[in-house]
What we know:
Blueprint: H1 2-52, E1 74-80, H2 88-96, E2 103-108, H3 142-154, E3 160-167, E4 171-172, H4 176-184, E5 189-190, E6 194-195, E7 216-217, E8 223-225, H5 226-234, H6 238-245, H7 258-263, H8 275-282, E9 289-290, E10 295-297, E11 299-300, H9 303-309, E12 312-313, H10 323-330, E13 334-337, E14 342-345, E15 347-348, E16 351-352, E17 358-360, H11 364-372
Parallel strand pairs: 1-2, 1-3, 5-9, 10-17
Antiparallel strand pairs: 3-8, 4-17, 6-7, 11-12, 13-14, 15-16
Helix pairs in contact: 3-5
Amino acid sequence: MALMAERVMTTKKGPILSRRHVIRFSWKLVIMISVFLCLLALFKLHLLYELSSPTPLPHPRSRISSHSYKGPAKIAFLFLVRRNLPLDFLWATFFENADAANFSIYIHSAPGFVFDETTTKSHFFYGRQLNKSVQVSWGESSMIEAEKLLLKVALEDPANQRFVLLSDSCVPLYNFTYMYNYIMGSPRSFVDSFLDVKEGRYNPKMSRKIPREKWRKGSQWITLVRKHAEVIVDDEVILPVFKKHCKRRPPVDTRKGKLNLKLQKQHNCIPDEHYVQTLLAMCGLESELERRTLTYTLWNQSAAKLESRGWHPVTFSYANASSQKIKEIKGINHVYYETEHRTEWCRTNSTSVSCFLFARKFSQGAAMRLLSEEVFWQL
């Protein structure tokens, strides 16, 4: 009887213990789910805050204010070159007719390249290369990094009040005095900047930091006042976004077959045609700009060129660098921006002026013709 009673008690306890175990497990599950839902809600709130919060703008570092500097104002000529300066002989003549107190020269070249009597024909460029440089590739963020390095070094001299970015194929269209008065006569930067609505270079992955309505496109060749140069050098927010999400599509390579087709579907973005324009728009500085470049470029838009490698600048040779062609470039007094239905009239102090002070791309032969015909002495 005792054995039977013990068996009965054991039989009755089994379901009770099982029920308690289920209840305890259910409570644990409810708690875990609740904690997970709370964490998920917190994450969504944090994400919503990031998306709705304005992108932090660059904070200029402590430098001598452009307003507090009282000495002669300089224009810093920033040459972004592959290695040497093939048109140094032309620029030497340009600088010879200038007051040394009114300009400075900085060169970003390949790492390790030195400008001395063996690598340049002009003493104006001796030792003017940056001590620190990066290897630059076309269509890569390294181009922006090189520009920032040039601006950073040039900002160390408080006399530098304007900053002109030039390529190794640029030529001046006027003499130094005219160019100096033109640039210094304006309190604005000259930055070609317009809405990019056609080419689809904007990457939606940028939207957390760069809203689509702030996305801009324009010429890489800019002329800046000191305040805007500081904004670009101090930026640590927008450039990382460009490095991650604005990349050039690999060029067409039919040898890769199906892989080539896959590569051509990738997002295509050219950083140096968007970075400065977008950054200044993000900082609310567009009202302080002349939204045009001072450097003329003739683009080859033929169907054959466009199909093979896209629009490409025409290189001026000796034959087509006539004084008549230069006169035509100097006669341009407005630029039309189709995407914005905007005409930018070129003025200085309410006076109509030529839009361009520089032009590219010029071969050595073309530069020699300009020099022989004394083109940039003619106003």
